[in-house]
Design brief:
Helix content is 17%, strand content 30%. It has 99 residues and is of the alpha+beta class. It has one domain: SH3 type barrels, CATH 2.30.30.90. Strand 4 and strand 5 form a beta hairpin. The longest helix has 9 residues. The two termini are 24 Å apart.
């Protein structure tokens, strides 16, 4: 399994076209459905997020994101509230069509 931040660092620092299609959970819009791509963080951070049911490839819906405080989302049948610090390190992609 390959995660967002597990690519080799070659010193070039160039962005790929795939990165331009993604964003962070902190910027997600209410009522929209997204897919998680990966995480930017250490082992303990990944372990914590994965234990909440947010794994690469999982789809979820944003219930509330006012720009302040936690982001509320629904993953499968579970509602979560994730703090701003964590949401700024979770890479997501917007789903084009519902389903």
């Amino acid at each position: 399994m390959r995660f967002w931040n597990s690519t080799a660092k070659s010193g070039g620092g160039s962005k790929t076209t795939r990165a331009s299609n993604s964003l962070y959970l902190s910027n997600a819009r209410e009522g929209e459905t997204y897919t998680m791509l990966g995480l930017e963080g250490g082992h303990r951070f990944k372990e914590k997020v994965y234990s909440m049911g947010l794994n690469p490839g999982v789809k979820f819906k944003i219930l509330q994101n006012s720009g302040r405080g936690p982001v509320e989302l629904q993953v499968r049948q579970t509602k979560l509230a994730i703090g701003r610090g964590m949401t700024a390190r979770i890479k997501i992609r917007k789903n084009d069509a519902p389903g």
